[in-house]
Description:
The protein has eight helices and seven strands; from the N terminus they run ααβαβαββαβαααββ. It has helices spanning 15-38, 41-54, 70-78, 91-103, 142-152, 172-191, 197-207, 212-221, and strands at 60-64, 83-88, 110-114, 127-133, 153-164, 224-231, 236-242. Helix 2 crosses helix 3 (70-78) and helix 6 runs antiparallel to helix 7. The mean pLDDT is 89.
Amino acid sequence: MSKNVTPYKNSTLGKKEQVTQMFDNISKEYDGLNRVISFGIDQKWRRKVVAIVDAIQPESILDIATGTGDLAIMFAEKTKANQIVGLDISEGMLNVGKQKVIAKKLQNRVEMIVGDSENLPFQNNTFDAITVSFGVRNFEDLEKGLSEILRVLKPNGKFVILETSVPEKFPFKQGYQFHANILLPFIGKLFSKDKKAYGYLSESAANFPYGEKLNNILRKVGFKEVVNKPQTFGVASIYVSSK
Length: 243
């Protein structure tokens, strides 16, 4: 298992509370900086996630760690699902997302709620599809969070993770290391009011199990048909599994 990386090294709070505080702090600037840091390619990855989910024609979708709601909104625009729930631990991020939902007049399709991935407020076998984009590395207890997702996913339902990973081939590995270790923290310190947040995002990505390691954790928890699809030379991966 990866080492426990937290946003604020000297804080007495647990990881979950620190992550909540961090995302509340950066919620208003997150979308803009995220587009700059990822060069906008994160939206392309999200569209691939939407296509994978849409292929099973889900009626209900849960997007965990929804943040400001980009993926939940895409589901409303690109699928026929009549119940789309965006759940996040950060009320600050959700408030930004709610304004985006209102602006697009999607209130009747998308519900944004505060919730904890490790204690989901839903009954067993509730959703046809569940997604997490750039959020599983923030789980305080990864296996507990994944077990909760398995619990609320319907039998034969689809679970899709979009998460950063580390390229293993030259020169992409070296380019990723420069971007993650130097560029991302520099941009964060320059433009963010929370100077430690983007350093944490970089460090947590580097220390998170990816590829076959995460596949094996998913299998251990109880997911089946587990595959991962590297994206853009391996800087991110899409993990697809089912119940």
